[in-house]
Amino acid sequence: MTTQFRPPNLALSTMGLSLATFMQVLDTTIANVSLPTIAGNLGVSNNQSTWVITSFAVSMAISLPLTGFLTRRFGEVRLFTTCTLLFALTSFLCGISQSMEMLILFRALQGAVAGPMYPITQSLLIGIYPPAKRGMALALLAMVTVVAPIAGPILGGWITDNYSWPWIFFINVPIGIFASMVVANQLRGKVEKTERPKIDYVGLISLIIGVGALQIVLDKGNDEDWFNSPFIVVTAIISAIGVAVFLIWELTDKDPIVNLRLFRHRNFTAGTIALVLAYAAFFSIGLLVPLWLQRNLGYTSTWAGFATAPIGVLPVLLTFFVGKYASRVDLRWLASIAFVVMGVTCFMRSDFFIGIDFYSVAMVQLLQGLGVALFFMPILTILLSDLQQNEIAAGSGLATFLRTLGGSFSASLTTLLWERRAVAHHEQLAEHISAYNPTAQAALTQLGHGDTQTASSLINNMITQQGYQISFNEVFHALGWIFIALVFVTWLAKPPFSPKAGPAAGGH
């Protein structure tokens, strides 16, 4: 058995890995607020510009579960540095795009090379840190996972307003080059055994078709009115066939391109279920709160960003302590506390109302940060705890893929529920406003100063707002119970929860 590899400078290695991951996670959200500007500059509609987001998400969703296969073929260090350099190159190409077609193509390529970066970072951090300090490494990575998506829209909006939209991509170039050089230099002595696994073409093609089509359905469903659209119906059928073929083939093939047999591990299964459902609910919160602030409370996108940003404060402040001391307690208790806190904050939001002040919204966001700080690191540690070192990259890639897919599902489902329930509540509230109701007529006359048409318009706007508010409260009440249910899922895992070092930790 070889000794575990130690880079010359652990802090510098960690910085290089974390910078690359921050850059990659940031790019999942940084373009969102810039879409109207990009659409205007490239002469396309706002609806067409959403493919800038969709193309990235589809490609990343496809490449994520391929991480294990690519790691076996090229090795973790080489794959990481290559993906990071290619990410910088495709970012540059996005920035110099002269048409929407060019930008969508380069964003798709950017998403494809982005997929393996996060799982490999997890695997490399576990591999270079001693067992006693791995919690610290995973806590740091968890902080990056939380802070980057929050910083993305704020940074993207600031860059677009003060410079120009290409700079949201150009800033990746120096970061990517620096991070890849640091990691390549620090980890060049890490011995890795590579192999030439048989390429599972059926698995690969069915994965691309099934997952690609599914991601398109989830991203475009709300815009296309779901199954009232022939495009969505056809794409959903293609996705269902592709995913079914993929699952059957991968579970029966001797050398699958995605190792679904990792679910034979109890902690990996329980941890992945908890991660996917909790991240989906967390993603719903991050999507719905800013939309509600802008639609119901009239906030600008900048002020909505300020109101939601406090969620990142406690994860940043507590990362060191969680990483250092978490191993001294049962991680299931930490995750349970996290889910209870996040559930309570959802119940608090279910009591929000249209006249609520900025401070109250920000304080609930701040409190939720405590749950976020205690959630990611314990769950990541639990799901990786019963994998062998040579399974960690594949397991992390598969869990991250399912987490990403969970986020896409929750984004579509949350928006759909909010809209549909708001319409239903609008109809219920409007039933009480009738031309044959003397009380209603008197109120309309008084409100419109005699002009009942103006009054009716004002009343309709108020009812619409109230409908969205009631729907918002209902969604958060349901999210609260989802987090509480996840406490029980967490306790399906069994200790010990230290990721296995194994002989592969220092090479094969």
What do you see in this structure?
The chain is mainly α and 508 residues long. Residues 501-508 have low confidence and may be disordered. It folds into 3 domains: 1-196, Up-down Bundle (Growth Hormone, Chain: A), CATH 1.20.1250; 200-256; 262-508, MFS general substrate transporter like domains (Growth Hormone, Chain: A, Up-down Bundle), CATH 1.20.1250.20. The N and C termini lie close together (8 Å). It has helices at 10-26, 35-42, 46-49, 51-63, 67-74, 76-95, 100-114, 117-128, 134-162, 167-170, 172-186, 201-220, 230-252, 266-295, 301-308, 313-325, 331-349, 358-384, 389-430, 438-447, 452-490.
Give the domain tally. 3
pLDDT < 50 stretches: 501-508
Please tell me the CATH architecture of the largest domain by its name: Up-down Bundle
Binned, the helix content reads over 70%
Shape: globular
| CATH class designation of the largest domain | Mainly Alpha
- Rounded Rg: 24 Å
Topology:
Blueprint: H1 10-26, H2 35-42, H3 46-49, H4 51-63, H5 67-74, H6 76-95, H7 100-114, H8 117-128, H9 134-162, H10 167-170, H11 172-186, H12 201-220, H13 230-252, H14 266-295, H15 301-308, H16 313-325, H17 331-349, H18 358-384, H19 389-430, H20 438-447, H21 452-490
Helix pairs in contact: 1-8, 1-9, 1-11, 4-7, 4-12, 5-6, 5-19, 6-7, 6-8, 6-11, 8-9, 8-19, 9-15, 9-16, 9-18, 12-13, 14-15, 14-18, 14-19, 14-21, 16-18, 17-18, 17-21, 19-21, 20-21
Sum up the structure in keywords:
508 residues, mainly alpha, Growth Hormone, Chain: A, disordered C terminus
Give a nutshell description of this structure.
This protein has 508 residues and is mainly α. The chain has helices at 10-26, 35-42, 46-49, 51-63, 67-74, 76-95, 100-114, 117-128, 134-162, 167-170, 172-186, 201-220, 230-252, 266-295, 301-308, 313-325, 331-349, 358-384, 389-430, 438-447, 452-490.
